[in-house]
Amino acid sequence: NAGVMQNPRHLVRRRGQEARLRCSPMKGHSHVYWYRQLPEEGLKFMVYLQKENIIDESGMPKERFSAEFPKEGPSILRIQQVVRGDSAAYFCASSPLASPHKDTQYFGPGTRLTVL
Amino acid sequence: GQQVMQIPQYQHVQEGEDFTTYCNSSTTLSNIQWYKQRPGGHPVFLIQLVKSGEVKKQKRLTFQFGEAKKNSSLHITATQTTDVGTYFCAGLTSGTYKYIFGTGTRLKVLA
Questions:
Q1: For residue A104, what pLDDT is reported?
Q2: CA distance B33 to A34
């Protein structure tokens, strides 16, 4: 039973390029969360998605960032026109139930994004 | 907005000593979770507390949820080198979907 998978594990981009981060939730999980972690800091919530729906994107910057979780395929976090401040570790987590009150989030290994 | 603070930020202990990290929320929480993250790794779920005043134990780890559901603590008895990592609490406010993570406590254990 594979865990949450993220790819790539490391991504290097130059300023102005686009970054696409992929997350495949655990089998049977239909809820995905994305978090950003800056070095030496905690995790900051970005967005919560269910299949084909964005439930809460209050933690995501209004510009340049977008997320989707299509009916088929992985969830994707897209960052357009990256800047150096986007350099961070991006983690996704999945859970099987609709109610976060009742369930654990299982984290993927993360994607370390470096913007040159 | 809601904030979740943890103290201390760093803690160095000798192997065998006890360790405690404290988590304080600016708002009342519906539940709280604790995670451990090893250096270079990803957060791993440890436990969830839901009830006011709840206490749960996992071997050498003891977790408490405050009576007012605004604070929590994690206590490790007789630390081992395998306990090294950063411990995060994450609080959920009723009516929301997102967990707010604490600032974390980085634990180093000296052999």
A1: 79
A2: 17
